[in-house]
Amino acid sequence: MLKTYSLTKDTLVVSSESNIKNSSVVYVYGDEREYIESSEHKYDFKIGNILTFDDQVAYDTMIDQNDEKSLIVSFLFPAVHEGGHLDNLTTSVVFLVFKNKLIIFTKQKLKFIPELLSNMVLRDVNNFVEEVLLKIMQKDFYVMLNDLRGVKEKIDDLDSEISTSGRLRPTFGDLLTLQKYMIALSTTYKANHKALDFIKKNFTTIDDINFSTKKIIDELYDTSDTMDRIILGYSQYLANLENMINNMISYQLNMIMKTLTEISIVLTIPAIIFGFWGINVHVPFEKSSYGVLAVLIISAILSLICWLLMRRKTYL
């Protein structure tokens, strides 16, 4: 699918797809193989391959026949879903940045991009490409920060579940999901930081960076550093939580083994007694009609005494 936007005064407005050559911003998503292949041939970049990168970013400069410089840069957007495979935790967003045109590529539609572009009011019309790209990254970082807040709530829920529930099997699924979040977000933050470094360094190859653009970049760096600190803290907490769960499992296993050991030792007493009364010699109660009952009572009493003594002596 294609969505095109034209710059009218200081506002981006949706335009007709038939006027794609004169559009200021083009958003390409889904199976637009023909347009992607055309762009690859025109700009000599494997955009399709870049879109498949889910753990790294791509960036480079281009020089056309008129010696005008442009940029290609991608960043990662987290797309973590419960039960998702590790290979599909993030999606790449690719930008072709020209002096007066911006082309955006994604494998699947990201709702926040067309919502952000529609009727976007720009501060600096002369450098609108830089401003649009940075605002998209700013929105992406805002979404990632909200994802972090969601992870905090999930961690709290997991903590409560461990405290109130004796069954740990469901907890492992929740813990695995949270660890997937950590992998996706951590990979995304590190990769996007590299893309941000490239943008800051190379925007001057298109035009002089202005104050508002520099301010947005500084805010993105601050947000990135904040998310790095938060993700580090959450990862350490989850690691400690995993150790605690393993300790709880070991404790429960030890309690089971302890109970089985108690049963084995206590049952040894009746076995000894029954064996004693079964030998081919004269023994008490051998001629009594209540001999079997007496032996059972004696066995039960001795077993109980043995169990109480071992409990008191903390052998079990």
Automatic annotation (TrEMBL):
Gene3D superfamilies: Magnesium transport protein CorA, transmembrane region. InterPro entries: CorA-like, CorA_cytoplasmic_dom, CorA_TM1_TM2, MgTranspt_CorA/ZnTranspt_ZntB. It comes from the Bacteria. Its main location: membrane. SUPFAM superfamilies: CorA soluble domain-like, Magnesium transport protein CorA, transmembrane region. One of its GO terms (molecular function) is metal ion transmembrane transporter activity. It is a multi-pass membrane protein. It is found in: Membrane. The chain crosses the membrane at residues 260-279, 291-310. Signal peptide: none annotated. GO terms for cellular component: membrane. Keywords: Membrane, Plasmid, Transmembrane, Transmembrane helix. The keyword Plastid does not apply. The keyword Membrane applies. Pfam families: CorA (PF01544). Belongs to the CorA metal ion transporter (MIT) (TC 1.A.35) family. This is Magnesium transporter CorA family protein. It comes from Lactococcus lactis subsp. cremoris (Streptococcus cremoris). The lineage of its organism: Bacteria, Bacillati, Bacillota, Bacilli, Lactobacillales.
